[in-house]
């Protein structure tokens, strides 16, 4: 798969979240930004994102997935710090 295909797959779930995907083949880094993550633990955030692509992970289409799930404020802070 290509990053654009993974992005389209995630966006097709109509979560309203903002996705940025990097990688190729079966290995991707997915950054997700949403106000929905406010007061949600890091693990729960990651689980929410991984649930969106659970079928692709189970089938082996996607394998090594790194999820960075942030609130808009967290994203802004990371950007200010140069991450």
Write the layout of secondary structure elements.
Elements (H helix, E strand, L loop, with lengths): L2 H9 L6 E7 L2 E7 L8 H11 L1 H6 L4 E7 L1 H9 L3
Parallel strand pairs: 2-3
Antiparallel strand pairs: 1-2
Q: What would your notes on this structure say?
A:
- The chain has 83 residues and is an alpha+beta fold.
- 42% of the residues lie in helices and 25% in strands.
- It has one domain (3-80): GMP Synthetase, Chain A, domain 3 (2-Layer Sandwich).
- It is built from four helices and three strands; from the N terminus they run H-E-E-H-H-E-H.
- It has a three-stranded mixed beta sheet with strand order 1-2-3.
- The longest helix has 11 residues, at 42-52.
- The chain is globular.
- The mean pLDDT is 96.
Question: Nutshell version of this structure?
Answer:
With 83 residues, the protein is of the alpha+beta class.
Which band does the percent of strand residues land in? Answer: 25-35%
CATH topology: GMP Synthetase, Chain A, domain 3
Question: Strands across the major sheet, in which order?
Answer: 1-2-3
Low-confidence stretches: none
**Annotation field: number of helices:** 4
Rg from C-alpha positions?
13 Å
What's the architecture, going by CATH?
Answer: 2-Layer Sandwich
Return the structural class: alpha+beta
Count of individual beta strands: 3
Specify the CATH homologous superfamily. Answer: BolA-like
> Which of globular, elongated, flat, extended, rod-shaped describes the shape?
globular
Spell out the helices and strands N to C: HEEHHEH
């Amino acid at each position: 798969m290509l990053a654009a295909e993974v992005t389209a797959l995630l966006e097709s779930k109509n979560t309203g979240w903002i996705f940025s995907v990097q990688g190729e083949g079966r290995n991707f880094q997915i950054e997700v930004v949403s106000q929905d993550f406010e007061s949600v633990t890091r693990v729960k955030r990651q689980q929410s994102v991984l649930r969106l692509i659970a079928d692709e992970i189970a089938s082996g289409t996607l394998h090594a997935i790194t999820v960075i799930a942030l609130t808009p404020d967290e994203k802004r802070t990371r950007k200010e710090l140069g991450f």
